[in-house]
Amino acid sequence: VHPNMSQGCQGGCATCSDYNGCLSCKPRLFFVLERIGMKQIGVCLSSCPSGYYGIRYPDINKCAKCKADCDTCFTRNFCTKCKSGFYLYSGKCLEKCPDGLEANNHTMECTSIVHCEASEWSPWSPCTKKGKTCGFKRGNEVRVREIVQHPSARGNPCPATSESRKCIVQRKRCQKEGKGKKNREEKRKKTNKDESKETRQESKGRAARRQNREQRENNNKTQPKKRKAPNKEQNLAPIDTAH
């Protein structure tokens, strides 16, 4: 055993020294040098830390540094997250996004510019004036539309969502709501009253006919039957003509 190597290695080290830490790692672990002041210590990790990417070799797995402007990377030439002040685009870290793209300060990426989109106009509303549709000749009508896609920071702004124009209607007088309602109520009451009157008359007629029928039946039951009058000729005594 080399005099600088230690037998009791910990933390995933296959070989180590008291001064330099890990010299090699156990299988599937990555070897990386950590700087502590002026000294570098070897450590073995299951994944590479921020600013490094892993490279696997037949005899050892190592962590290599990303580019200076890259915070995390898949390979040295493909960054997955940029450091502050840079924007990620196609694996590269840029200070300014290319033409046709804009910088997203939330994700720190270069994204496509999104323009505003609006729906089709609705039909024109009825011609009104001060909320009424009668009692005037000139009024206004409006139409509206909705925003279906809001723009990004550099996208085209959204257009107006409502339009108004002058309109002309046939002048007509407004019917008073209270009077109209009163007339409808009176008409309804009159109809109900007429129906009730007809119903009562029909009921009285049926009751009168039933009473007359019962009276005739009672009279027929209580009136005695008339006896047949005797024949006057049969009751006369024979006249004696001898004298």
Please tally the β strands and state the result. 16
Question: What's the CATH class label of the domain at 7-65?
Answer: Mainly Beta
Q: What multimeric state do the chains show?
A: single chain
Identify the CATH homologous superfamily of the domain at 7-65. Hormone Receptor, Insulin-like Growth Factor Receptor 1, Chain A, domain 2
Topology:
Blueprint: E1 13-17, E2 21-25, E3 30-36, E4 39-45, E5 52-56, E6 61-65, E7 70-75, E8 78-82, E9 87-89, E10 92-94, E11 101-104, E12 109-112, E13 117-118, E14 138-144, E15 147-149, E16 162-168, H1 177-222, H2 232-235
Antiparallel strand pairs: 1-2, 3-4, 5-6, 7-8, 9-10, 11-12, 13-15, 14-16
Subcellular location: Secreted
Domain Spondin-like TSP1: 116-170
Main location: secreted
Question: Can you offer a commentary on this structure?
Answer:
The chain has helices at 177-222, 232-235; strands at 13-17, 21-25, 30-36, 39-45, 52-56, 61-65, 70-75, 78-82, 87-89, 92-94, 101-104, 109-112, 117-118, 138-144, 147-149, 162-168. The chain is an alpha+beta fold. Among the domains are: 7-65, Hormone Receptor, Insulin-like Growth Factor Receptor 1, Chain A domain 2 (Ribbon); 75-112, no CATH class; 118-168, TSP-1 type 1 repeat, CATH 2.20.100. The strands form eight sheets. A two-stranded antiparallel sheet has the order 1-2. It has a two-stranded antiparallel ribbon with strand order 3-4. Strands 5-6 form a two-stranded antiparallel sheet. A hairpin with a 2-residue loop joins strand 9 (87-89) and strand 10. The longest helix has 46 residues, at 177-222. Residues 232-237 have low confidence and may be disordered. Residues 171-243 are annotated as: Disordered. It comes from Pluvianellus socialis (Magellanic plover). Belongs to the R-spondin family. One of its GO terms (biological process) is positive regulation of non-canonical Wnt signaling pathway. Residues 175-219 have a biased composition (Basic and acidic residues).
